[in-house]
Predict the structure.
Amino acid sequence: MPRQKTNSKLNNFLSLEDARAFSRLPIEKKASFVATLGDAEAAQLRYLWEAWARDKQVEPPGKWTIWLILAGRGFGKTRTGAEFVRKKVENGKWGRVGLIGRTAADVRDVMVEGESGILACSPPWFRPKYEPSKRRLTWPNGAIATTYSADEPDALRGPQHDGLWIDEPAAWQYEDTYDQAMFGLRLGRNPQCVATTTPRPTKLIRMLVTAKTTHVTTGTTYENEENLAPTFFQQVVGRYQNTRLGRQELLAQLLEDAEEALWKRESMIEAYRVTEFPDLIRVVVGVDPATADPSKKHSLDDDDNAETGIVVAGIAANGHGYVLDDRSLQSSPLTWAKEVVTAYHKYKGDRVIGEQNNGGALVEANIRSVDKQISYKEVWASRGKYIRAEPIASFYEQGKVHHVGMFPLLEDQMAQWEPLTGQKSPDRLDALVWALTELMGEMSAGEHVGAMKRRVELAQARKVKSAQPVQGGWP
Ligand SMILES: Nc1ncnc2c1ncn2[C@@H]1O[C@H](COP(=O)(O)OP(=O)(O)OP(=O)(O)O)[C@@H](O)[C@H]1O
Ligand SMILES: [Mg+2]
């Protein structure tokens, strides 16, 4: 049992060692110790992170500039980032902090005001004042944090910080944000950055993992099971367990592209990525609706987690396609219809292309219930998904399709979907294929057969290679 000190000033209540010892006690022992405390001490213990954190959640030893926490969904990444910021500010180590989230809403709703964010972690006696309109937190000791959204890299040109917390950088649309932020990380004697994220094999994450100045901590969803709401745990584990993507989302492994996926991340997406695009002669919004099909309600296919794929793309005069946005979401029909209409207007769309497979005219009616004027075209998934996706993948291969920024969840689906294994094609990818098929047209029959042949040959070559006897193997 940890030693209880009579002097119960903040941070002096338990020594660091005692706090760490307390954190390793079984829950009943923790409870009986707390029962011996007065209110003031119990409150202090509650906010003493070292008394509750797992080993992987406290500051690692050694010299590093970036502490990269690559961990599964619900591991406690955000909480660890928030507690780290709090401690550095309380100890007077950080006075000008930058907080960067994927979007402005994420910084506010997750990093600052979220259940594991900075305000929730802060004790009443050292709570920062949050002024959302100024994008600023101010602590009682004068330390200041400014919030930034990763989709606005320009806001980071100029400001300097002595500490940074970046959340979910593997899901940022622009990696330039990271470069700008690191440029400004130059105040004080030991500027540091904590990065908390579910992994994804993006250029940025690969670079961070291998950098000498990075300390990498990895962990799985299961490690935090006892602190997760059972519904969250069941939902996320239920969705990903025993799937390829589950190795990334739950176990935090950096996945390679799936062998038989139509898209290769590096050579087909990364190689042609852009941050700016030319004038577009036509823009469409592809929609793959998650329609509740009553006839399917209880079938094995029934997917409670189905998303509606919403992808915006345009075509330039040179015939190249540009993927502008992925606004896919899991929502009620009314909410996704509003999202489609917002995207259509934001990008000055010419048409919405909606898949009518299950919903019949319902999809069009749903969209028109939000805006009657939308130009709408329905498409039917009469041919196999592979047949439709294949020519689009070939356009990528030829460098004719460019992603404007990064679309992490869409790109995960592209690099992981293996059509020949019979997996259902994912929603974001379907919306992308509808949009690009409308813009770039389909290949001629001849081109199509050629492309198919090439792929079959490639697949066969791979099989032959892997079937070759290993030297020094069987006699
Ligand atoms: N050591 C801990 N002790 C108690 N509660 C914890 C601990 N670590 C994390 N938690 C709690 O677990 C929950 C999930 O944590 P958090 O939101 O930080 O996870 P995350 O990895 O960021 O999740 P996501 O993948 O959804 O972003 C939160 O309620 C958080 O406060
Ligand atoms: Mg989080």
